[in-house]
Amino acid sequence: MSIQKTDLAVILQSDRFKELVNKRWSVSISLTTIMLVVYVGFILLIAFNKEFLATKIGEHITIGIPIGIGIIIFAWLLTGIYVRWANSSYDKTVREMRKQLLDE
């Protein structure tokens, strides 16, 4: 079965589809904003307080290294949050909408 052009127009105009798009947009913007704040904060820290990042916490390690690694791990966590949301909510709704459309 394929989706006809008229069905596509109905989908694009449906409240459920618009709600789904808004939700995806909201989640994406929220996670992107959080990541940008953390990343820009790190860059500003590099720009304006190099001495803090150069503080030694061991014989060979400075505080900047674990902070940098923490930012990378934080990005992975945000990606995991998005994937978990997409798998549990977004994809489920898309499958339901598709099934509903193809069953009609």
In short:
With 104 residues, the chain is mostly helical.
Features:
single chain; 104 residues; mainly alpha; 4 helices
Q: What would you call the structural class?
A: mainly alpha
| Fraction of residues in β-strands | under 5%
Helix share, percent:
over 70%
Number of helices in the DSSP assignment: 4
Average pLDDT level: 91
Distance between the termini: 11 Å
How many distinct beta strands?
0
SSE string, helices as H and strands as E: HHHH
Largest sheet: none
User: What is the gyration radius calculated from CA atoms?
Assistant: 22 Å
Architecture overview:
With 104 residues, the protein is mostly helical. The chain has helices at 5-13, 15-48, 50-53, 64-103. The mean pLDDT is 91.
Record the SSE blueprint:
Blueprint: H1 5-13, H2 15-48, H3 50-53, H4 64-103
Helix pairs in contact: 2-4
